[in-house]
User: What shape does this take?
Amino acid sequence: MNYNKLIDHTLLKPDAKEADVIKLCQEAKQYDFMSVCVNPYYVSLAKKELTGSNVLVCTVVGFPLGQNTTETKILETRDALKNGADEIDMVINIARLKDGDNPYVENEIALLKKECANHTLKVIIETCLLTDEEKIRACKLAKSAGADFVKTSTGFSTGGATVHDVKLMRETVGEKMGVKASGGVRTHEDLLNMVSAGATRIGTSNGTKII
Assistant: This one.
């Protein structure tokens, strides 16, 4: 297996400088990772730095809390795609999910997928804040709304990916939909455990160390 092509090489720190993003892109090209995942401000820079490579540009929407309005998330998505993003990782409105407002959550995901069209949409459900029932419900809503992936975590909350959660998400969405494990994946062993549980993409800032 080409483990490098499982990795979204990630830098989402609020104090990341331009030089840090350029270094991230150079590493991604060197190791031929699947993508770099950067904050929206750096999408244009990453796109420029990755010209001529096979590495995609991924960015985040509604990040990290998910509490932006749907209209704001749509505008964020539109802007990111205009600036060259290939993939969008959006955070659901966790509060609406917990309040049982399934139509709101599903509609928001569906609207962002409409904006993405043929571009990949990953849905961050922030598993550390959810019960298993809520995780299952979130995954079903993301699948029903047409998303391409469900993703465990932002890496900015109380916990990251766990084998239990990845396995539960895979069992819920079936074999065809993507599952991204993100947050706390730091070693090659961590990566193997997540892949064994059903992950098809890994979000990590430790990609070079893992490979």
In short: The longest helix spans residues 102-116. DSSP finds nine helices and eight strands in the chain. The longest strand covers residues 56-61. The radius of gyration is 16 Å.
